[in-house]
Amino acid sequence: MSMPPDQHLSDPERFRTLVELSPEALYVVRDEHFIYLNPAAVRLFGATDAAELLGTVVLDRVDPAFHALARSRRQQVLEDVGQAPRTTMRFVRLDGTVIDVEVQATAITFHGHRAIHVAVRDITARLRSEHALRASEERLRQAEKLEAIGRLAGGIAHDFNNAMAVILGHADFALQQLPEGHPVREDLQTIERKAQQSAMLTRQLLAYARKQPIAPRTVDLNVAVPQALELLTRVLGEDITVVWQPADEVWAVAIDPAQLDQICTNLCVNARDAIGGPGTITLSTANCTINASLEGGGTDALPGEYVRLRVQDTGRGMSPEVQARLFEPFFTTKAIGEGTGLGLATVYGIVKQHRGFVAVRSTVGRGTTFDVFLPRSTSEVSEPASPVAMPPATPARGTILLVEDEPSLLRLASRALTSAGYTIVPAEGPTEALERAQRHAGSIDLLLTDVVMPVMSGAELSRRIVAERPGTRVMFMSGYAAELVASHGILDDGVHFLPKPFTLEELSHAVARAMNDETPIAA
Q: Is the peptide bond before 501 cis (omega within 30 degrees of 0)?
């Protein structure tokens, strides 16, 4: 029976064996030079043999940013306490790569001389894992924030948009009754303008939370962006030079053209404000194949084929602290009253709703670059929609079953459509609508109904009405978020839909379009 090998070793030899076999990197320093390294330390520094390091200066293997800390700890160990607590720093391996380490130093006597014994643990992988965990936790917090804002916006959208529709409608009626130059007209126009701005805030919140109704179509950014810039250049002012640099033959993308306009507007206005005077905003396009996450783009940037829309400015740039909060709703660096803090948040929401992502690069004093990545579409580019005909100047004809569970909005819409020449059958909810439809002796040309109502949805009501009256056309209206409206099939192609709040003119145009549509809704 053989004896355990360590029983043949003397105490010094046993101690040396333990050091040599230690998984922790250990080395000894005297006069700032390596005089001993165990195999783990040799591997730590990327050497194949201790001879490559023995006699060399220890600080050569320390990241320059940590030289002051290393000298301070050396003095502390040799002159003061004899041992320094563990601390973290960075070492430089022989191949130049940098690693994060945890270091503990102790004063010892080595071969009769004062020296320092150093124990080192490579924590690079651990720090990366911790960083990934923190990034994951931050994405989770952002997702929870996004969901909370979405619930808030979706929850208030219905009642708020109903109220705004009533305010806009009554302001319209009052303006119609006052002659030009009347002193009250300016007050009413201010009410109307502020009501529309208030409604825009709700739409921006819904866009950020990705709950805004969208109607994407396949577009060529090289065609669509210049169209947006035609009007935008007037908004930016004469001090701003806008440069357009389209790439050749960019791929098509699927996006709601109105929301593409909003992306361009918000990014360019933000760039103008960052410039704060004369400067240049450069917009460009490019095809991009993404194989990994981009710097500034977040780890949720999925690999794939994208078209990149770049907006670059010569402004003052942003600090890392500002960039970290850039897409938070209501966060702004502008003075009170100069911005809502929803512009970039809206861009973020729109892009994410279209399954894209945004990357940002900025340096203080050197400007900012926003890269919007939109997924490539394999569909053919859609032709722009033909201009919608205005309603006829003569009084309209036809009977409308108008269903709205908000009494004040029901009265307002009834009054507006009656004034336009329609015959209105008003109903305050689905149950009353079914009863009135059964009692109505004449034809019903159009069912105009809210989407989300007690007892029965607008979609279900339309199916029952059309089943009884096959010739009836249908139009929906709603102030709810997109996901709720879409769940009722309201955003399908070919369905007439009027988002709330709306002006009386928008209501009149939408009804005229629906009444002129010869295709009734399927039963």
A: yes
